[in-house]
Design goal:
By secondary structure, this protein is mainly α. The chain has 13 helices and no strands. It has two domains: about 120 residues, no CATH class; about 110 residues, no CATH class. Helix 1 runs parallel beside helix 13, helix 8 crosses helix 10 and helix 10 runs antiparallel to helix 11. It is globular.
Length: about 240
């Protein structure tokens, strides 16, 4: 029963945090720390876990729009990155998610010193994406959507640039399967890629995803990021 309660609390915290990011992307305000982003008390572990799930997108309003981060949230984000480095046997998406968080922190906090600076500098390998089928490629890119940023250049973005048609196919598949979170993540990538087929109708497709799945803050976050991509400027 306690495990179920903790799981529900974590899920609610992730949704609240995503909602705050969406609000900041729409209105230009900072992401609120709220009652969950605290370095003290029992809520600290839940807050860190929620930030790990949302990943680098927690700081997206700062990275993309230059909105100053809430000091409380910034502190918990840094703590979440420092306290949970990937294990040696971690999945590639976990390693890349950690790298993206460290990189976001470096953009916000210069100079970034110590092990976190090393994490942000040491780009992981992405060769596994070259061998992935288009379905798996789209799934993995959707998980790593926080890396879809204007002007970003890393091995994952280069892999995506080489396969715009495959990502487009994956976007259509996700829409047909009503997997709105994957569709929104893939759509965010597609806004940055050259060579996307005109027949895809990406703008109309994203509007449909917004209509059908936009009530989920995690979906809305990806759609707001996609909307801002053409004008976004990284710190």
């Amino acid at each position: 029963m306690e495990q179920s309660s903790t799981s529900a609390l974590l899920q609610g915290t992730v949704l609240d945090l995503a909602s705050d990011v969406v609000s900041a992307l729409r209105g230009g305000d900072h992401v609120r720390a709220g009652g969950t982003a605290t370095t003290d008390g029992a809520g600290a572990g839940i807050a860190r876990a929620a930030i790990r799930i949302l990943g680098a997108d927690t700081l997206l309003p700062t990275v993309l729009l230059g909105v100053p981060p809430d000091p409380g949230l910034h502190a918990v984000f840094k703590d979440a990155v420092a306290a949970h480095p990937p294990r040696p046997d971690a999945a590639p998406t976990v390693v890349w998610s950690h790298w993206a968080m460290a990189r976001a922190l470096r953009r916000v906090e210069e100079p970034l010193a110590g092990p976190l600076a090393d994490d942000a500098a040491a780009e992981p390998d992405a060769g596994w994406l070259d061998d992935a089928g288009w379905q798996q490629l789209t799934h993995q890119l959707a998980v790593l959507a926080p890396l879809a940023l204007p002007g970003e250049d890393c091995a994952v973005t280069r892999a995506a640039r080489r396969r715009p048609v495959d990502v487009a196919r994956g976007f259509v598949r996700a829409v047909r399967r009503r997997d709105w979170q994957q569709a929104a993540g893939a759509g965010r990538w597609l806004t940055l890629l050259d060579g996307v087929p005109d027949t895809l109708g990406l703008e109309t497709g994203l509007d449909f995803v917004r209509l059908m799945g936009g009530s989920d803050p995690r979906v809305a976050l990806q759609l707001e990021a996609a909307r801002l991509m053409p004008a976004g400027v990284l710190l």
